[in-house]
Structure formats: C-alpha cells, structure tokens
Amino acid sequence: MSVRFSRAREVKSPMIYRIFIAGSLTALADGAFGIVQGWIAGVPRPVARFFQGIAFVIMGKRPDHGGVQAVLLGLASHVVVALCWAALFSILMGYSRWVRQLLKSSSGTVLLGIVYGPLIWTAMSLLVITPLVHHLPVFGKSWWIEFVGHIVSAGLPISWTFRKYTWKSLNKGQLPGDALG
Description:
Layout: E1 2-4, E2 10-12, H1 15-40, H2 47-59, H3 67-95, H4 97-103, H5 106-133, H6 141-171
Antiparallel strand pairs: 1-2
C-alpha cells in the first residue's frame, strides 16, 4: 500500500515503517522530556543517568552500579517500549473505526494524543513499573507532570505520525492493517 501525497509522487509507507517512525520520534521526545523534567524540577541529571534510571527498574539495583551496560540497557528498553506503544496504536487504528475517523482531522489527531499519552504513562506506571519495583507509584507532583507530559512526549508524536502517513488511505476507505508489509 502506498500513500499518495501528490498526483506526481507516491510514497511507500507500510505499517512497519509507520511504527518505526512513530516509535523513534516518541523515544526521542520522551527521552528529551525526561531529561528536561529533571532540570525543571531542580534535579538536573546527565543523559546517562536518565537511561541508568530506566535500567534500574529492570535490573532492580541502583543504576549507578551498572555503568555503560546500564545506560545501553536503559536506552534499548526505552526505544523498545516506545516502538511497542506505536505498534499498539497501529493495532487500535486497525480495529477502531472511531480512531480512524479521528485521524482524519487535525483536532481529532490532537484529541487522540491527549488521550493516548496519559494512557501510556498510567499503564506504564501501574502495569509495568509497579510490578518491577514492587511498590505502587506515589501520585504526587512528579507523577502528574509525567501524566501531562506524556501528551507531548508520547501521545502526539504517535498520533501525528500515523495521521501523516495514513490519512490519505483512510480517506479512500482502506484499512491501515492492509499495509502490514
């Protein structure tokens, strides 16, 4: 399946490409958000420390004990998780006429990002992080900053990427799942 952006040119955009772009943009935006959030909160941390913190959740020990291996594990985990959320969005898009309809308009795409971003953070903090660290999150200021921040750092990059690479085919009535190649 290809998406026609102009009469003269077609751009191939199979679903796996859309997932890769959306996941990569989300990993970059969310990583930048996590680092900037530390600066805003008055607890600046180097990039390496941010990714060591992600590895800490997986490894179950202090992140500063992991060195370069912890940084690489945190980075890889961050990217894989972002790709998984993009893939889940593509599945939702394939099964939900409502999602496909919203992607046809800019305001609908923004609405999807506003809903999907906080959904990602809520699911991550309650269903992924909580079992790994063996305690419930503290629903304080930091948690709510993450909740709102995931609109910009995850929800919007995913919804806009899928809108950009899908909306023409949606207007033709083709299902996004037709392009899983």
